[in-house]
C-alpha cells in the first residue's frame, strides 16, 4: 500500500488520550494497524501490519503480522507513519521507536492533527475471510480481499502454474467478484480498473477502482412508486458483508421496493452492486422488518454520499408492513391490513350498496359463516389475503381486497366506496401499487391479477374492460364471459341413467384432458385463463394454495373432473370447495363447467351433472358457471346473469399503471 494522500484539519487537535483509546479499541476488535516504512538506501516504501498490544499512556507496542512482504532486513528501513484505522482514521509520526524481527514499540505524541489517510476510509478485511476473483478475457486470478472502500479494493492475488501476471493487462478493465469461503453466494461482482500493483512472479497486491456507480436490478418501469421521506427518519442496521463491521444509517427516503441512505463521503461504506444479506429496518429503536438487498447506485455530492438499496428478498408479511408504512407516509387516511370489527366491514358493504337486496337474499342463510370468514381473512390470514381501507374522520369510506386464488393469481374483489369518489380511487391505487411492486419483488409468485364483474357494473366495465380492449391482445389481458346459474335441487332429478355407464364416463381429470382443454380454449378465446387458473397439465393438481389456506385455518380445495363420451372429452368440471364467505358472490365456491362439445352436452346432461356434483360435494345451492356463455344462449337456459372474468398478465403492468394514472387524473379534473 502506497503512502496515502492526506487531508489535514488544522483547527482540530486530537489528544494522546484519544489516540490511546483508538489503539485499545483496535486491540479489542483484534484488528491490525499499519506502519509505513521506507528503505534507507533505495527509497521505496513498504506497508506492514501489526497487532497492537494494550496501550497505556505514552507508547504503543505490537507484534508484526508476518506476511509475505515482511523484510528479512527490517533494520534497513525507517518508520514514516503509523496509521490507526477506524471511522476517523488517525495518522501520526513518532519521534522515537524501536523494532526487531518480532515486535515494535513507538512513543505517542501529546497531540496530533486529525489527519485522515484518505478521502474515503479504507477498511481492513479479516485475513482469508473474503475470497476474490479477477477475470479478464476469460482468464481468472484468485486471491483474497485485504482492505476495502467504495473508491478502491486492495487484493492479494496468486498466479498458479501455468498462469503468469503477463496475462493481466492493467490498461484494460477487469471483472472482480467477492465471496466468503463457506458460501457460494457472490457478495459483489463488477467492473474495475487497475490503479496500481506490486511486482511479483507468484503473488501480487493490486488496487482496483470500481467503475460501476449504478447496478440496475429490475427492468426499468414507466410507473415507479413514489419515494417518501419520514420524520423522524427510520434507520437501517446491517453488518457489512466484506468488512464484518456493523453500520447504522438514517433512511433518506423509502418506497415499497427499496430505500436510500446518506452518509459522509469520508466514511462511505457502500458500493454499487454490493449485496447486503440481512438489513434491519427499525423505527424508534425497534425492529420493524428485515430484508436482503443490493446497492443499486452510489452518488456523491457536497461531501455526502447517497446510496440506493433495492429489496431482493423479504418475508411476505414484512413486505405488507412496508407497503402500509409507505401508504401512511403518503396519506394518513390510507390503511392496509385493517384489524377492525368484522361487523364494521359488513355494515360498510351494506351502506355502500355493495350488498344489495338480491345479493343479501343469497347469503342471508349463511350470514354467520360470512361473518366468520371475514374475521379470519382480515385478522389471521397470512399470504392469502390483502385488504386496503380508506378512512375519513375515522369512518371507512373505501375498501378493496385481494385474495390469492391460484398459485400465481390474485383476485381483486370487494371494491366498494361510499359517496366519496376519492376513497374508491385511493384504494384502487393502493392495491394496484401492491400488485405492481409485488410482481417485481415476487414474494408470493405473483404473475396474474384477476377481476370478476357483472356487465351492468359500470365502473369495472369501463376501467378494466376498456383497458383490455385497448391492448387488443388476449395474451396480455383477456376477458371471458360466463353464464351464471344457481345449483339444481337434487330432488328434481328423475333419472341419472344416461351418465351411469357406457358411453358416458365421469372421472377425475388427467393430464391428457388438460392438454385437450388448452387446445379448445386457445381456439375459442386465446386468453390467459388456463395459466392463471391452474388449468394446465403442469398445474392442475398442485396443492400449494390449498395448503396455504389450511395454514390460516381456512379451506380452499379443488376437484377437477372430466366428462367423456366414449373417448372424447365433452366437458371439464372445476369444483371449488371453499369456506363460505371468501367471496361475497361465492365465486370462489362455485362449480365451473367448461363445455367442449355443445352438441353432445345437452341441457339434460347438464342437469344430471349438476345433481351428481350437488350430491357428491353438497353443492345444491352454490353457483354454477357455464363456459362458453353462448352454450346457455344457444340452448335457451334460464340463467340469472353473466360474469366477465378479466385477467392481466403482469408482464404488462406498466401499461395498466399508465391507464390507472390517466383514469385517476381524468376523474380528478373532471
The count of β-strands is 34
Shape: elongated
Would you state the CATH class of the largest domain? Alpha Beta
Rg is 34 Å
Proportion of beta-strand residues: 35-45%
Largest sheet: number of strands, sense, barrel closure:
12 strands, mixed
Q: So how many helices?
A: 13
Helical coverage, percent range: 10-25%
Uncertain residue segments: 1-11
SS-based structural class? alpha+beta
Number of domains: 5
Write a short abstract of this structure:
With 670 residues, the chain is of the alpha+beta class.
Describe the structure.
By secondary structure, the protein is α+β, with helices and mostly antiparallel strands. The protein folds into 5 domains: 14-112; 123-210, predicted glycosyltransferase like domains (Thrombin, subunit H, Beta Barrel), CATH 2.40.10.220; 235-314, Beta Barrel (Thrombin, subunit H); 319-446 and 458-466 and 652-669, Aminopeptidase; 478-649, Aminopeptidase, CATH 3.40.630. The chain has 13 helices and 34 strands. A 12-stranded mixed beta sheet has the order 23-24-25-26-27-34-28-33-32-31-30-29, with helices on both faces. It has a 7-stranded antiparallel beta sheet with strand order 6-5-2-3-4-8-7, covered by helices on one side. A 6-stranded antiparallel β-barrel has the order 11-12-13-16-15-14. A hairpin with a 3-residue loop joins strand 7 and strand 8 (103-107). Helix 3 packs across helix 5 and helix 6 (421-441) runs antiparallel to helix 13. The longest helix has 21 residues, at 421-441. The radius of gyration is 34 Å and the shape is elongated. Mean pLDDT is 86; it is low at 1-11.
Amino acid at each position: 500500500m502506497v503512502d496515502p494522500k492526506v487531508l489535514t484539519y488544522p483547527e482540530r487537535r486530537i489528544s494522546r488520550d484519544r489516540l490511546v483509546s483508538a489503539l485499545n479499541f483496535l486491540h479489542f476488535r483484534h484488528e491490525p494497524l499499519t506502519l509505513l516504512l521506507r528503505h534507507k538506501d533505495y527509497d521505496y516504501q513498504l506497508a506492514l501490519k501489526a497487532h497492537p498490544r494494550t496501550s497505556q499512556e505514552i507508547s504503543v507496542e505490537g507484534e508484526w503480522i508476518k506476511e509475505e512482504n515482511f523484510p528479512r532486513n527490517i533494520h534497513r528501513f525507517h518508520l514514516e507513519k503509523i496509521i490507526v484505522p477506524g471511522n476517523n482514521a488517525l495518522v501520526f509520526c513518532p519521534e522515537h521507536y524501536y523494532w526487531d524481527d518480532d515486535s515494535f514499540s513507538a512513543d505517542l505524541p501529546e497531540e496530533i492533527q486529525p489527519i485522515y489517510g484518505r478521502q474515503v476510509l479504507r477498511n481492513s478485511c479479516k485475513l482469508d475471510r473474503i475470497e476474490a476473483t479477477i477475470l479478464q478475457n476469460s482468464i481468472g486470478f484468485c486471491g483474497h480481499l485485504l482492505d476495502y472502500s467504495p473508491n478502491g479494493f486492495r487484493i492479494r492475488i496468486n498466479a498458479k502454474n501455468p498462469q503468469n501476471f503477463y496475462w493481466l493487462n492493467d490498461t484494460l478493465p477487469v471483472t472482480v467478484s467477492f465471496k466468503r469461503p463457506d458460501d457460494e453466494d457472490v457478495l459483489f461482482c463488477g467492473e474495475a480498473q487497475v490503479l496500481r500493483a506490486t511486482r511479483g512472479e507468484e503473488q501480487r497486491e493490486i488496487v482496483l477502482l470500481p467503475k460501476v456507480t449504478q447496478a440496475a436490478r429490475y427492468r426499468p418501469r414507466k410507473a415507479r412508486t413514489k419515494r417518501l421521506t419520514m420524520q423522524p427518519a427510520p434507520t437501517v442496521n446491517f453488518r457489512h458483508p466484506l468488512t464484518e463491521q456493523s453500520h447504522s444509517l438514517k433512511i433518506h427516503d423509502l418506497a415499497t421496493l427499496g430505500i436510500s441512505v446518506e452518509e459522509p463521503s469520508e466514511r462511505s461504506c457502500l458500493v454499487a452492486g454490493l449485496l447486503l444479506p440481512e438489513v434491519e429496518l427499525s423505527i424508534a429503536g425497534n425492529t420493524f422488518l428485515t430484508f436482503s438487498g443490493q446497492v443499486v447506485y452510489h452518488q456523491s455530492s457536497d461531501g455526502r454520499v447517497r446510496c440506493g438499496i433495492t429489496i431482493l428478498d423479504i418475508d411476505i408479511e414484512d413486505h405488507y408492513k412496508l407497503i402500509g408504512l409507505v401508504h401512511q407516509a403518503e396519506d394518513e387516511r390510507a390503511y392496509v391490513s385493517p384489524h377492525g370489527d368484522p361487523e364494521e366491514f359488513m355494515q360498510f358493504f351494506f351502506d355502500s350498496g355493495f350488498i344489495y337486496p338480491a345479493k343479501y337474499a343469497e347469503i342471508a342463510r349463511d350470514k354467520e359463516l360470512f361473518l366468520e370468514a371475514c374475521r379470519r381473512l382480515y385478522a389471521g390470514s397470512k399470504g392469502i389475503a390483502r385488504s386496503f381501507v380508506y378512512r375519513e374522520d375515522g369512518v371507512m369510506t373505501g375498501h378493496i381486497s385481494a385474495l390469492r386464488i391460484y398459485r400465481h393469481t390474485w383476485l381483486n374483489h370487494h371494491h366498494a366506496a361510499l359517496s366519496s369518489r376519492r376513497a374508491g380511487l385511493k384504494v384502487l391505487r393502493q392495491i394496484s401499487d401492491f400488485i405492481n411492486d409485488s410482481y417485481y419483488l415476487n414474494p408470493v409468485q405473483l404473475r396474474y391479477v384477476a377481476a370478476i364483474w357483472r356487465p351492468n357494473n359500470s365502473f369495472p366495465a369501463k376501467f378494466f374492460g376498456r383497458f383490455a380492449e385497448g391492448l387488443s391482445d388476449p395474451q396480455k389481458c383477456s376477458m371471458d364471459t360466463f353464464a351464471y346459474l344457481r345449483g339444481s335441487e337434487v330432488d328434481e332429478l328423475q333419472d341419472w341413467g344416461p351418465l351411469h355407464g357406457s358411453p358416458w364416463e365421469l372421472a377425475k381429470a388427467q393430464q391428457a384432458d388438460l392438454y385437450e382443454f388448452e387446445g379448445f380454449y386457445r381456439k375459442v378465446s386465446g386468453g390467459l385463463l388456463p395459466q392463471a387458473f391452474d388449468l394446465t397439465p403442469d398445474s392442475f393438481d398442485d396443492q400449494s394454495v390449498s395448503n396455504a389456506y389450511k395454514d390460516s385455518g381456512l379451506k380452499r380445495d379443488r376437484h377437477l373432473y372430466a366428462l367423456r363420451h366414449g373417448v372424447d372429452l365433452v366437458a371439464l368440471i372445476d369444483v371449488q370447495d371453499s369456506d363460505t364467505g371468501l367471496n361475497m358472490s361465492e365465486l370462489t365456491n362455485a362449480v365451473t363447467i367448461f363445455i367442449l362439445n355443445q352438441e353432445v352436452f345437452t341441457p339434460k346432461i347438464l342437469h344430471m351433472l349438476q345433481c351428481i356434483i350437488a350430491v357428491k360435494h353438497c353443492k345444491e345451492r352454490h353457483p354454477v358457471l357455464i363456459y362458453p356463455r353462448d352454450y346457455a344462449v344457444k340452448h335457451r337456459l334460464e340463467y340469472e346473469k353473466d360474469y366477465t372474468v378479466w385477467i392481466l398478465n403482469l408482464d404488462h403492468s406498466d401499461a395498466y399503471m399508465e391507464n390507472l394514472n390517466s383514469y385517476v387524473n381524468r376523474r380528478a379534473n373532471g
